[in-house]
Amino acid sequence: MTPLDIPGYVNEAHLEDLAKTIDAIPDHANILEIGCAYGRSTWCTLTHMKPTHTLTVVDTFQHLKPSKIIKSIQKYHKREGKKINKILSENIRVLTQKGQRGLFDHVLRQHPLRHTVTVHQMSSKQYIAQHPEHTYDAEYIDGEHTYDAVMMELDHFHNT
Asked: Nearest-CA neighbor of 49 among 81, 19, 77?
């Protein structure tokens, strides 16, 4: 599986930048991902992590409608004259049947470094309130997308 076999909004150029960033993180680092959606960025992060890294993922798994991303995937493939491959088709089926969290779990179960991941189904605000002392060597912030939420996340993780 590749990240592009997973429904999501993170494009190929962004995934390449994320991969380069993760590749540059030293051994024994703790990485935080706020906002994983269906798992596209999580798969990329896991694929480029060192086996000594750990990944903490925080997402509410409640904000994305499967029909919207499926329609977007279909339009993209039609416009580009591409067929939807077998893996992406299976992931769309899982998304349709099990929703956002179900697809994320399905994807995560297939990655060899899945044992390095801890998932918290909650908002970043709730996570910070419950784990105020946790610090990270790298944070990937792609959650709520509001000014207040991002500033709260940046302020917390860069002032602790």
From this structure: 19
H or E stretch at 57: strand 54-59
| pTM summary value | 0.91
Asked if residue 6 lies in contact with residue 111, where contact means CB atoms within 8 angstroms, the answer is no
Distance CA 131, CA 120 (A): 11
On the CB side of 143, CA atoms within 13 Å amount to 29
146 vs 82, higher pLDDT: 82
pLDDT tens digits along 26-45: 999 999 999 999 999 999 99
Q: Which amino acid is at 81?
A: G
Mean pLDDT of 111-117: 96
Q: Rounded to an integer, what distance in angstroms lies between the CA atom of residue 136 and that of residue 16? A: 22
Helices (H), the chain: 12-23, 40-48, 66-80, 86-109, 124-130, 147-159
